């Protein structure tokens, strides 16, 4: 496992991090979920990402159980705040001071730890003054409950405004967590250049595009039994927009490229996002420990320029690069129900 600095901070994170969105507390039974976390640690992963909203707090609880007994100083534990938790009342979401403070304390209890290494604003909250949000984060940092702060799916303009306030409040604002893959490149035109300027690193999610970049979904064929596309608890709705024949045909053109490099399709996809120097870590998820063993082998892989060019040519017009997609991730009003 290779390690990278998180943005311009002194914090080192594993190039491959383990996330439990969708899986823990919902798709995967607790015993299997814990086995996946243990395999991640055995494979050299030190960075673990979750959020209070995942499975309505259950994912944090499972991760806390899985990490119990491990040396806390050897791990980087990340979580997020913003999306609705609990019964979904008017103050059960957003980035108000009330919700941030209460959510942080609850996350600490579920994760069975006295501090969060990186506390992230899961989306931008248009209903709360940014000054209120950043002041609350600053108080958590200065109290020792949080070491660093980050965000997820913020636009370049939002990153710049948040970073300015964080600098004024003497808070280390070090990361952004966007979707990023060979197919989804919307951060490249604006978010990445701004982040490089500000010293913000990307912790990217869905580098395998919800499993589509493994090549297991074939054009014109039914989705495989037991795959994410058959999971009605959330997995199917997240992957369905990729299940178009044009996309699946393009992905099949990657198969010989992966073969020539000696990588699995998943390894090729993860290695691709890690070629971007602004990416600090790529988040993987898993329902089986053996998936982790395969995925972590992408760490330290260098893809030659001709391979990167061949990937671009294979995917062609199915690549999505429009930066306006980032802004669409932040609703103008807070979600109040799950």
How would you describe the overall organization of this protein?
This protein has helices spanning 30-42, 58-67, 97-111, 130-143, 156-168, 191-198, 235-239, 245-252, 255-261, 265-274, 289-296, 305-315, 324-327, and strands at residues 3-5, 12-14, 16-19, 47-49, 76-81, 116-121, 146-151, 173-176, 201-204, 279-284. The longest helix is centred in the first third of the chain and has 15 residues, at 97-111. It has one domain (12-327): NADP-dependent oxidoreductase domain (TIM Barrel), CATH 3.20.20. The chain is globular and about 50 Å long. With 338 residues, the chain is of the alpha/beta class. Strand 7, helix 5 and strand 8 form a beta-alpha-beta unit.
